[in-house]
Amino acid sequence: MTKKAINDPRYESLIRWLVDARRNQGLTVRQFAALIDESHQFVNKVETFQRKLNVYEYVQYCQALGLEPTEGLSFLKK
């Protein structure tokens, strides 16, 4: 069975994909946090691998960034 860890390279790739999308749209952590109605600390913890996203939060992130959630899931299959 595969270890489920926050520092799994596949999970890190998924989060990097989200961070890159946020940065490419010119959004700061605070601006993005306001978009998804979360605190900037929440976003920072997710982006620095201190907190895992649950499925709902992941979809919320993708929708706010105009990303297709299924595209990001491909990072977890590698």
Question: Any overview of this molecule?
Answer:
With 78 residues, the chain is mainly alpha-helical. The protein is built from five helices and no strands. It has helices at residues 9-24, 29-35, 40-47, 55-65, 69-77. α1 (9-24) runs antiparallel to α5 and α2 (29-35) crosses α3. It is globular, with a radius of gyration of 12 Å. The two termini are 15 Å apart. The mean pLDDT is 92.
The residue fraction in helices comes out at 55-70%
Biggest sheet features = none
Q: How are helices and strands ordered from N to C? A: HHHHH
What is the first-to-last residue Cα distance?
15 Å
* Total of DSSP H or I helical runs spanning 4+ residues: 5
What is the overall silhouette? globular
Name the average pLDDT: 92
